[in-house]
Amino acid sequence: MTNPLPVILLTGFLGAGKTTVLNEILKFLEPKNLNIGVLINEFGRINIDAQLVNEKYSDNIYEVNQGSIFCACTRDQFLSALDSIIKHTPPFDLMIIEATGIAQTGDLNQYLNEPPYKNKLKIAQNICLVDAVNFHKVLVTLPAVKNQIQEASLCIINKMDLAKQQQIDIKALVRKLQELNPGVPIYMTEYGKLNFADVLKPDESAGYMGVLSIAQDRPENIYSYTLVSEGTISMDDLSKFLKTISKTYKDLMRAKGFISTDEGDFYVEAVGTKWDVKPFENTHRGRNRLVFTGGRMDNSKLQAEFKNITMDCK
């Protein structure tokens, strides 16, 4: 019998830096010439993160959208992806799963211990990304944050550079993590950069699973909205639109997407209401996509305003 395919699970709340760390892991593993599969789980209808992963692995990416892999609502999608993964030729040496940021880490072994997956895959590690700046803001109000820490086999505190700038009490953060998960190894990083030789343990079997069963419903009071338009948007109109979003929707948790402007293509993201706009080589020039996650928003108004600022909108 062949050894089970090791799976490294990346968790962490919205905007903690999971995709950044995923790309750093792939960069570290590249010299080893491993055949690596990647599964990206998004709460929204459109998978933005899959397009941010190192393009070398584009043929090995699987997507599960519109819910968490720890929720029964995505069961068929997830099992279909697992079928493809275990049948992949040549076989994968390692699988990395990036869970959606709002996931409450459930017991994936409910799936993996059943035919046809039994003895085919194993959870080797659950690496939880912690946003050093925003962790204290979401811990009290969002159960998923606490759960992700409790289920982790190790934690990585990311955005240490921003934490220092904002004088975040890192010692207090570390104490809280240790309180939630006594003995959990804790690493600190900026931009997801680490000595992954010390961090990655794909030959191990994580003993963290089993506290929660697979959820039957989506998280309450968290919603996803997807905006799509065809054409280009002026940078001035984009700036005004993003400022309006920040002013109007204080419950916005995360936003990300790709925008074609009169000054080029950009990746747009926000954690809370703090926006960042970066140049990005968009393979779909003229197709704009934005995904919002958070409290309730006026979807019809958002769609109308987004299309209104798009020039040559079809």
Set down the secondary structure blueprint.
Layout: E1 5-12, H1 18-29, E2 36-41, E3 61-64, H2 75-87, E4 94-98, H3 109-112, E5 121-131, H4 135-138, H5 143-151, E6 154-158, H6 160-165, H7 170-180, E7 186-188, H8 196-199, E8 223-230, E9 232-233, H9 235-248, E10 252-261, E11 264-271, E12 274-279, E13 287-294, H10 299-308, E14 310-311
Parallel strand pairs: 1-4, 1-5, 2-3, 2-4, 5-6, 6-7
Antiparallel strand pairs: 8-13, 9-14, 10-11, 10-13, 11-12
Short description:
With 314 residues, this protein is an alpha/beta fold.
How much helix, percentage-wise, in residues? 25-40%
Give helix and strand order, one letter per element, not per position: EHEEHEHEHHEHHEHEEHEEEEHE
Shape: globular
The number of E-state strands comes to: 14
Looking at the overall shape, the CATH architecture of the largest domain is: 3-Layer(aba) Sandwich
Structural class of the helix and strand makeup? alpha/beta
Would you identify the CATH H-level superfamily of the largest domain? P-loop containing nucleotide triphosphate hydrolases
Rg estimate, integer Å: 19 Å
How far is it from the N-terminal to the C-terminal residue, by CA? 55 Å
Which strand-content bin applies to the residues? 25-35%
Strand order of the largest sheet: 3-2-4-1-5-6-7
Mean pLDDT: 87
CATH topology of the largest domain: Rossmann fold
> Count of DSSP helices?
10
Q: Could you describe the largest sheet, including whether it forms a barrel?
A: 7 strands, parallel
Low-confidence stretches: 208-216
Q: What is the domain tally?
A: 2
- In the CATH scheme, the class of the largest domain would be Alpha Beta
